[in-house]
Structure formats: structure tokens, C-alpha cells
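Encode chain A's predicted structure.
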Amino acid sequence: MKLAFSTLGVPGLPLPDVLRLATGHGYHGVELRAHPEEPVHPGLGAGERADAAALFRAAGVEVLGVAGYARVAAPGADEPVLDEVRALVELAADLGAGYVRVFPGGGTEQPGSEADAAAVRRLRAAAGHAEARGVRVLLETHDSHRTGADAARVLDGVGHPSVGVLWDLMHTWLGGEQPTASYDRLRPHLGYVQVKDIAGPDDTVPLGLGAGVLPLEECVEVLSRDGWDGWLCWEYEARWYDAAAPLPGLLGAGREHVARLLNEAA
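Encoded structure for chain A:
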């Protein structure tokens, strides 16, 4: 398995500094948070995209994916959501990234069947464009569809290889699933896995990997046992928590912790 980290942990950091962190701590890739406050987002012009892609190539670091904020199960018209997803796909393709992250975002007063139907319809509509650009759109286990069972229900309905799932370990665990159950449902659709750690269900301030309660060891064991050889991405949500310790000082220990788990699982 290869290890990446998300720029959500270092909000607003210029790309050369992000790449120095990746190369200095032995990370193979970076997941780019695609938001206007970040160096990379859908508003970039062609030249800026080419420059960003060149920086990653020169550093020997992969752009794992573009983490967008489109909400495919949200109430409302389809076309604005599809426009957002297509823009993210174009950005990912220009950067050489294989994946785009989208959220479910179903409304709290929206029946689950309606949210599922909206997500299936929109993801199907986006699938051809993603396939043509060599990108895979991944629905994250999050908010209205936080468990593997929830996400798989949508993805089974989509039935297209260019649409899959981003397994966020924290959200499936908070939804009451253990890794074995999550993986059983997500396996046919799995793009990559976001790992993290927290103190508990009522304290989700991010911690260093291995310092909290999330079942990362079991997750790695389940993946290794099945021969899965994809990406683990450390999503350290420093952007949302002022109390979070700075990520740069944790990156080395985080990589070593995952390496130990992989070695034990092997």
C-alpha cells in the first residue's frame, strides 16, 4: 500500500512546501483539497494547472486525488451539482490525479430514498465524462451516507467503473460499522481509504495516527488479508479544529506507525 496525506491538514500551504513535507517524510502522494482558499482549485487557469502538475512530477510525488465539495445527494436541481463535479474532474485530469472526492450531502428532511435516487442519477450522469478523462469519481462515506452499507447502496445502483467509494474510516466507525463489515460492502467499489485518529465519538479533534481509538490496525489487516494494494490517505482535519497540533510535526511518526501496521499485517 502507498501512503498519502491530505492538504486539509496544512490549510493554505504553498505547493512547494507541501511537497517538501511529502518528500521529507516519505509520503508517496498528496490529496489536494480543492477549495478557493487553497493553492489548487477549479478556478485555476490552464497555465497554473500545468505549473502545479510539473511541481509534483519534479518532486516524484503523485497527486492522489482532488477533494471537492460537490454534494451529489443534496436536494435541488441536478445541473449545478453536475457542473461542479465535471469541473473537479477536469481539474483532476489536468493535474494527473486519478480520483475526485464528492460528498453525499443528503438533506436532513429529505427521505433517504430520494437522497439515494439523486445520488445515483447524478453519479451516473457524471460517469461518462469521468471515464473519458481517465478519472474516477469517489463518493466519500460521510454525512447522510456515512456507513459502508449506505454508500454501497448508492454505488450498487450506479454500476459504473468510473464511480466508486472513498472509505473514510472515522465515519464508518462512528456509524457503528467495524472495518470488516465496511470493507465487505465497499470492496467492489473501493478507490482509496482515508485514515485518521480521534479520542472518541464525542471528541473528534484529530490526533496522531495510533494515538486514539479508531480501528486502524484492523482496517490495515482487513485490506492486507484480501491483497488490496491501494492508497491510504491520512486526512488530518486541522482546518476545522483550532486545538489540533500542527500536522508537519506528526507526519514522520504517522508514516512509521502505518509502516509498522503494514509489516505486522504482512
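The chain has a mean pLDDT of 97.
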